[in-house]
Write a structure and sequence with these properties.
single chain; alpha/beta; seven-stranded mixed beta sheet; 7 strands; globular; Methyltransf_25
């Protein structure tokens, strides 16, 4: 079950008129999608829809979910503004009606789930990706805490358990061939809450 404090936090963040992380897609996601022929794609923890809408503009058949109804409202408005449609559901993964091997790509972009469930969600998502399909992942690394101490505006969780390591990604996605798996320092300029230098894990993996 979702902790109500967690849900309230995201509804509060997404309830303002401005987009928390902007309306432009994440750079890494954009780079990866531009290498691919459009197909079906799932965005877990998609928030206000910037990445889902970008994929839809590029011709992908887009599904997304989040626990925040406020996020969905903003995402559907952004889709409408761009003359595209996305299938956006509100709820936790186990309550949603995705099918096995439904997607060609699953994109996890700053999908920081609570520490006690993040690995189980990754493992559950695997069933919805077809063999040969791709995971595209970018999120803050465990090293990122040092960056937050220097600059809170860079954003990201402040508890180490919600952050990621290369070893965790390997453990969560054991049946994938790694196209890229790196920890690196990047410059972020995404809306109100991702600004400055941070440390991320980037992973693109193909399901065996």
């Amino acid at each position: 079950m979702t902790d109500n404090t967690w849900l309230d936090r995201w509804n509060d963040r997404y309830s303002s008129e401005e987009f928390a992380y902007g309306t432009e897609p994440n750079t890494y996601l954009k780079e990866q999608l531009e290498k691919l022929e459009p197909g079906s794609i799932l965005f877990p923890a998609e928030g206000e829809g910037r990445n889902a809408v970008f994929a839809a503009i590029k011709g992908w058949k887009v599904s997304a979910f989040d626990i925040s109804s406020e996020g969905k409202t903003k995402a559907l408005q952004l889709a409408k503004n761009n003359n595209v449609s996305i299938d956006y559901q509100v709820g936790e993964l186990q309550t949603l009606n995705f099918r096995e091997e439904q997607f060609d790509v699953i994109a996890l972009i700053y999908a920081h789930f609570p520490a006690d469930i993040k690995s189980s969600i990754h493992k559950a998502l695997d069933q919805y990706l077809r063999k040969g399909g791709l995971i595209i992942f970018e999120a803050f690394s465990k090293s990122h805490l040092d960056y937050v101490l220097k600059n809170e505006k860079v954003g990201g969780p402040k508890d180490i358990g919600s952050l990621f390591s290369i070893d965790e990604i390997k453990a969560d996605f054991p049946n994938y061939d790694s196209i890229e798996l790196v920890e690196k320092e990047i410059e972020l300029n995404e809306g109100l809450f991702h600004n400055g230098t941070g440390s991320v894990i980037r992973f693109t993996g193909r399901k065996r």
